[in-house]
Structures are given as structure tokens and as C-alpha cells.
């Protein structure tokens, strides 16, 4: 079989669809959870790459400590990504996987190729964690309200807890608290913008 023939072969499942599963969750609930999880998966894959970039490009007096810390956080993204992707498949969906999908879905992937100063690297990382945390908490609440406890538990127990801890470890290296807020991602189709502390999100 040629490569062209492989590319032309019919798909077994289109991206964006959910197939029947045996979880006693409606198609609509699973569809919404899959969309939410794929958004968070894209963010986590972008965070994975951002941490590796920081691991390679860090400089300055804290080089060695940060070089090691960033690789630790990179490894933790790998575990998180696998959990999110396999939850998508568990719900009958199709998980995002490739770089182009991440670029389309997460603005975190849109960082400069060049080398930033250490303070900028740290600010970017805590800013990106905050962006994901804002979306993740809102999406977990929606999954919980829809009865998809497993998805809500995964988002809070794995992603939110991990990112809060990583933000602490990175943020303690900052010399200023004046971290510019990152512009948020576009809302997920069919979802209201993420809310922070019960208030509508500012634009
Ligand atoms: Fe390395």
C-alpha cells in the first residue's frame, strides 16, 4: 500500500463526533465534555512544549535549578496529556494529537521562537497556567452540572491541582508580581466565556 492510499483511506471516525459507549451518559453531555477536554488537551500539549523550550533556553544565575524544574514540569505534562486524551476516547470522542491541532486550539502555542529573558519566561509560564486554570475550573463546573463527574474529577484532581502547584514553583522565582494578563482564548463553541470567582469574564 502506498502512502497516498493510506491518506485516501476512509476514516473510522470523524473528529468532533462521539461514538456510542456504555457509560450511561447522554451523547450531548459526552460531546460537550469531549470538546472541553480537547481544549484542555491542546493547552496541556502547548504547555509541554513551552516547558521544554524554557528548559533549553533558560539562562542566568538560577539556570541549573530552573533547567531541572522546567523538565520536571515537562514530564508532568506528559502524564496529564495522556489522562486527558484517554478520557476523550473513553467518552467516545477523538482526541487531538498533532501540532497543527494544538496551534489552532491553544493560543499558548503562539510564543516567539527566539530566546526570552528569564523573567519573561517565568511570567509567560505563570500567565499561561492562569489562562488554563480559568478555563479548566469553568469547564469542570459545567461537566459537574451535566452529571459527568468523571470528567469534572479529572479536570480538578489532575489538571487544576497540578497547574496550581506548578504555578507556585515557577512563581516563587519571580522578582515581581506585575505579571501581564494573557489574552484569553476564544470561547469554546456553544459555551459562555469562562467565569472567574462567579463573575463574568472581562474581555
Ligand atoms: Fe534536557
By DSSP, the count of extended strands is 0
The assembly state of the depicted protein chains is: single chain
The distinct ligands, each listed once, are: fe (ii) ion
Q: Pick out the low-confidence regions.
A: 195-203
Overall pLDDT: 90
Structural class estimated from helices and strands: mainly alpha
Helix fraction bin: 55-70%
Tell me the Rg in angstroms.
Answer: 18 Å
Q: Secondary-structure element order, as H and E? A: HHHHHH
Strand fraction equals under 5%
Q: Could you describe the largest sheet, including whether it forms a barrel?
A: none
General shape: globular
Summed up, the helix count is 6
- In whole angstroms, the N-to-C terminal distance is 51 Å
Summarize the structure.
This protein has 203 residues and is mainly α. Helix content is 61%, strand content 0%.
Overview of the molecule:
With 203 residues, the chain is mainly alpha-helical. The site of fe (ii) ion has 2 residues, from loops.
Amino acid at each position: 500500500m502506498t502512502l497516498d492510499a493510506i491518506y485516501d483511506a476512509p476514516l473510522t471516525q470523524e473528529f468532533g463526533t462521539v461514538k456510542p459507549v456504555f457509560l450511561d451518559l447522554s451523547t450531548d453531555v459526552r460531546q460537550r465534555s469531549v470538546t472541553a477536554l480537547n481544549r484542555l488537551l491542546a493547552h496541556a500539549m502547548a504547555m509541554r512544549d513551552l516547558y521544554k523550550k524554557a528548559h533549553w533556553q533558560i539562562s542566568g544565575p538560577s539556570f541549573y535549578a530552573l533547567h531541572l524544574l522546567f523538565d520536571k514540569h515537562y514530564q508532568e505534562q506528559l502524564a496529564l496529556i495522556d489522562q486527558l486524551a484517554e478520557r476523550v476516547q473513553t467518552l467516545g470522542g477523538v482526541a487531538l494529537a498533532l501540532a497543527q491541532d494544538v496551534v489552532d486550539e491553544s493560543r499558548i502555542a503562539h510564543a516567539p521562537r527566539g530566546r526570552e529573558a528569564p523573567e519573561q519566561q517565568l511570567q509567560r509560564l505563570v500567565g499561561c497556567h492562569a489562562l488554563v486554570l480559568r478555563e479548566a475550573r469553568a469547564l469542570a463546573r459545567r461537566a459537574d452540572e451535566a452529571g459527568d463527574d468523571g470528567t469534572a474529577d479529572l479536570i480538578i484532581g489532575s489538571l487544576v491541582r497540578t497547574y496550581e502547584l506548578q504555578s507556585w514553583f515557577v512563581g516563587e522565582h519571580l522578582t515581581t508580581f506585575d505579571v501581564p494578563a494573557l489574552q484569553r482564548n476564544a470561547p469554546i463553541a456553544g459555551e459562555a466565556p469562562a467565569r472567574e470567582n462567579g463573575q463574568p469574564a472581562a474581555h
